[in-house]
Amino acid sequence: MLSLNAQLLEQIASGAHPNPHSFLGQHTTVDPSSGMTTTTVRVRRPLATSVAVRLGNGTEVELERAGAGIWQGSYASAPHDYHVVARFADAPDWVARDPYAFAPTIRVHELEALTAGTHERLWQVLGAHVLTVPGIDADSRGTSGTAFSVWAPRARAVRVAGDFNGWDGTRGAMRLLGDSGVWEIFVPGAAAGEAYKFEILTTSDRWVYKSDPMARRAEEAPDTASIITAPSEYLWADDAWMARRVSVPAAGAPMTIYQVHLGSWRPGLSYGDAAASLVDYVVAQGFTHVEFLPLAQHPAATSLGFHVTSYYAPTARFGTPDDMRLLIDRLHQADIGVIMDWVPAQFPKDLFALAKFDGLPLYEHPEPRRHEAELATVPFDYRRPEVRSFLVSNARYWLEEFHLDGLRLDAVASMLYLDDARADDAWAPNVHGGRENFDAIKFLQQLSTAVHTALPGALLIAENASGFPGTTESPTRAGLGFDMKWDTRWMRDSLRFMTRQHAERARHVGEMRYSFTAAAHERVVLPLSHETVVDGRQSLLTRMPGDAAQKLANIRAYLSFMWAHPGKKLLFMGTELGQTSAWSEQHGLDWWLLEQPGHAQLHHFMSVLNRTYRARSELWSRDSDPAAFARVGGPGNHPDVIAFTRRDFSGGTLAIVANFSPTLVHDIALDLPHSGVWHEIFNSDAAEFGGTGVSNLGMVHAGYQSEQVPARAAMVLPPLGVLWLAHGREPHVPSPTQG
C-alpha cells in the first residue's frame, strides 16, 4: 500500500492539492508475478471513529487511518462501485457515494476547443451539470449528482462548497485537467436548486470565494452564490415565429422597438406577470419588438443592468430561467420579437464575480491603463482564447436557450478603440502605434460569423458612436458583421434640435438633416433610448419648448419624423405616455398620466403611428437603400420645413413633410416626384391626437411643371406638425386622423 507522508496527507485533507483524485478514490495495482489485481481505496472522513467501504456486491472492507482524516484499505479484485460507511461515536452511521470514485466528466476535445478559442457552446461543458454517471458493476443503475467544472488556470487548488457538503470546501477538492486550466469534480447527490461557490487558492496562498462564471442560475442579490440548475424542460410554443424569423430578413421588414427596463416598467412585476401585461400592452401599442435592458444577473436592483456579474444566469429578481422563457415565448406567440442588451465590453470589479478570478487578471485585460476606474469596470481581454470562447458561447446561449431574436451590444466603441473615453495617459497604443483594438475587432468578427452561421435570422446590433467603418459590413469584406447599428449621432443631434427654442431651430436645421447621409451607408436603428433620460435627465416631454400643448405637439412631430426617416426605430418606455417626471428605476412610469386627455391622446397617437408605419412598405422595405429616399424642396424659403420621399420596391411613394415651427404654414409649394393626387394618410396634428386639426382635407394635388420639375403641390402645414402623403390615383375620403 502506498505510504503517504504527513505533508501530502495534510495538503490532500485541506483540499489544497491540485489533483486529489490521484490519491483519493480507487487505484489498482497488478502483481506482475501472479497477475493478481488489488484495488486500494482512500477516503476522507476526518470526524469518523471507523470507516469501511461497502462494495456493490455487499462486501464491506474496513479501512485504516492514514492520517489527517484520511482512511485507506484494499481488496483483492478489480474496482467495484462502492459506498463509504462512516461510523461516529455520537451520531448515526453516514453512508454515501465518494466524489473521488468517478472519471472526468469532460472530454478532451472540449478542453482543446476551449483553449483554442473556438468553443461556441461552453455552457454545455463548464459550470454545474446535473447528470447520472454510469457505474462500474454490470447491474449498476448509475449515480446521480452534479458535475462541477471551472476555468482557473493559475489557481494552486480549487474546491467547490455548497448546500450539498455543508459548505465545507475540503469535501469538494477538485482536480486540474492537464494543462487546460479547467478544474473538475463530480459530487454524488448534489441536486438542482442547491447553492454553491468555488473556493480558489491563489498564487499568493490566499483562498478567494467566487460565484460560477458559467452558472445558469444565481441567488437573488444581495446574495451571491450560484445555484445548480437542471436542464430546462420548458416546452416552447413559438415554432411559427422562429420559422418566420429565418424566412423574413429583418432589414426588409418593419421594426419598431419598445425598450424596457423590466424592473421599473411596472415595479413589482415578475417574468410571469409581464408575460401577460407587457405582452398585451406592446401588442396594443403596435410595436414589433421589445428590447430589454440587460436581464443577466447584476447585483444592484437600482441599476440599469449593465454591470453583469453572472453572464449565463437570468436575474433572479423576476423569477426563474424558465419564467423568463415563458415571457419570451408569449411575446413570440403575439408576433413580437425580443432583443436583449448584452455587455461584452466590460464587467464590474465585484470580488465575488469575474474580477481577478484566480487571484490575477484573467477575464480582464491586465494593463491597468485600460481599466475604466470611473465606471468601476474592467475590459475583457480578447487576446485570451478562453475569454473569446466564454463570450461567443454566451451570445449563443441567450439566442439558443432563450430564443432571443437579437442582442444589442453595449459600448462597442470602447471595444474598438483603445482611447475611447480615456485620458491621453490612460491608454496604450497598439503594435502599430494606433488606437484601434485589433483583438476586439477580431473577436467581433468571430462573434458575428459564429452567430450568423449557427442561428440564421438572429440579429446583432451595435451601439457604436465612433463611426467605425464597416460596422454592418460582412467580415469577409473587412467589416464587423453586425446586422444593424444604433445611429447615436442622430439621437444626439435630433434631440439637441428638438429641445431648442422654436425661434432658434431655423439656424440649426442641419442637425435634423445630417442623418440622411448616415442611413445611406449603414443599416441603422434610430434610437431614442434610455440614454436620453437616465442619470437624472428630464423626460423628453418636459425638455420640449413651448407651452403644454406645444410640448405634446413637439413630441408627436419628433416621433412622426423619426418613424418616417430611413432606419429602424427604438423608443424607451414612457415617452409614449408623455412622461413628465425624471425616469427612476424605483419610481416606475407615470401611468396615472393616461387619465389626462393630452397624454391619453399621445398614447393613442403612438399606436396609430405604429400601425400606419407597419402598413406602408415604403417606410421600411428599403431602409438602407440610398436610391429609395430623397430630399424634397420647392420655390419658397421655409427653413423650419424638412421634406423627403420614401419608396418601396413596387413603386409606392410617400412624401413626408415636417414643419418644426409653431406657426401655421399656408403657402408652401413642394416639388414632388409624381403628379396627381397625394393622399394625406397621417397627420401628427390631427384633432384626435390633441392637435389643432389643420389639414389639407385629406389630399393635395400635384400638377406637372416641367421636365426638370415633374410635379409641384401647394399645401398647408400644421404648426409643429408632420404630414405623410401617399401618391395615388383615387380620391380620398377624409377621416378624423387624415383630414
Outline of this structure?
By secondary structure, the chain is an alpha+beta fold. Among the domains are: 6-98, Immunoglobulins (Immunoglobulin-like, Sandwich), CATH 2.60.40.10; 108-227, Immunoglobulins (Immunoglobulin-like, Sandwich), CATH 2.60.40.10; 292-322 and 334-485, TIM Barrel (Alpha-Beta Barrel), CATH 3.20.20; 625-728, Golgi alpha-mannosidase II (Immunoglobulin-like, Sandwich), CATH 2.60.40.1180.
What features would you describe in this structure?
This protein is an alpha+beta fold and 739 residues long. Among the domains are: 6-98, Immunoglobulin-like (Sandwich); 108-227, Sandwich (Immunoglobulin-like); 292-322 and 334-485, Alpha-Beta Barrel (TIM Barrel); 625-728, Immunoglobulin-like, CATH 2.60.40. It is built from 15 helices and 36 strands. It has an eight-stranded parallel barrel. Helix 2 crosses helix 7 (385-401) and helix 14 packs parallel to helix 15. The radius of gyration is 32 Å and the shape is elongated.
CATH homologous superfamily annotation of the domain at 292-322 and 334-485: Glycosidases
Total number of β-strand segments? 36
Mean pLDDT: 92
Helical amount: 10-25%
Largest sheet: 8 strands, parallel, barrel
Portion in strands: 25-35%
CATH class of the domain at 292-322 and 334-485: Alpha Beta
Structural class call reads: alpha+beta
Shape annotation: elongated
Annotated CATH topology of the domain at 292-322 and 334-485:
TIM Barrel
Cα end-to-end separation = 97 Å
Rounded to an integer, what's the Rg over CA atoms? 32 Å
Low-confidence stretches: 731-739
Please state how the strands of the largest beta sheet are arranged side by side.
Answer: 17-18-21-24-25-26-27-28
